[in-house]
Amino acid sequence: ATARVPPPKEEFGDLVAALPRKEQFLDGRFYQGFWLPEHYTPGVIAFQRRFTPRPDDMVLVSYPKCGTTWLKALAFAVMTRAAYPAGDHPLLRLNPHDCIPFVEDVFTDGHEAKLDRLPSPRLINTHTPYPLLPEGVTGGGCKVVYICRDPKDMVVSLYHFLRRLQPDLSFADMFDSVTDGTVPYGPMWDHVLGYWHASLAHPDRVFFLKYEDLLQDAGEHVRALAEFMGRPFSPAEEAAGAVASVVELCSFDKMKDLEANKRGTAGTYKSMPRDAFFRKGVAGDWVSHMSPEMAARLDDIFRDKFGGTGLTI
Ligand code: A3P
Question: What is the value of pTM for the model shown?
């Protein structure tokens, strides 16, 4: 008989209860340098301690509200492009979050056996900070793709997202949590820098993307992503416009209007309405939400933190 694996909430309950706590729009626990959402903390710890990657796994990581949905759609479309006839792709029927499991939900709910049952190559998704990833992953056991975004647009996006559940949310409180680092999965600069440095040290294993770059030239980055994933577009595919097809299938305008992305909820934690993952899909919407002073403050903080790393915002 196989030993029963206790649910993370039970197994790591005492550990989590002893961590520093912050009550806010999403209550946080400070674990190994990062403010994890309290609800997901046992799940992240379980992932960190229990997950063993397969060599052809692809872990898609994002800072929340920085392009997770887009990256999941693009990676899934790249990976599965040969398997479906044009016009009959699962992304036309399913929300990207229903195509690729979210580690935090899987582990928090004690459903990790689901990951074992997935056929290879597996695509899995998390917001886990780099230093908290399972050793098997950081040790080179599989590949990682990361996406980040201008923190000003991240905070605006996060505000609108969480307002769907908490209509009286304060933008000022959320802004402050970004600046003091207590925002969920924060400090954001440390989250981004962890993956930035890993991508410089191991470019063959860690691929770093920016939301704004994708907006500017999705095709170029989809090509590079496919190459990184070991599934480069062949000359015949190039000639047939396969890159443009992937970009079009995953484009904001296309996805936003699909029935699968308008109805129902995704994820188990608080069950977000699926349409909440598709709001504006642009860069620079921060101008309508913060004063030039606030913007300058955020820019200064990140410029300072990123100083000398080669990373710009
Ligand atoms: P906005 O709120 O600025 O519109 P995440 O997927 O990490 O939760 O991030 C959500 C943000 O990505 C939202 O930003 C959302 O509109 C945008 N987004 C979702 N799907 C997208 C797509 N296919 N193309 C471009 N942006 C997308």
Answer: 0.97
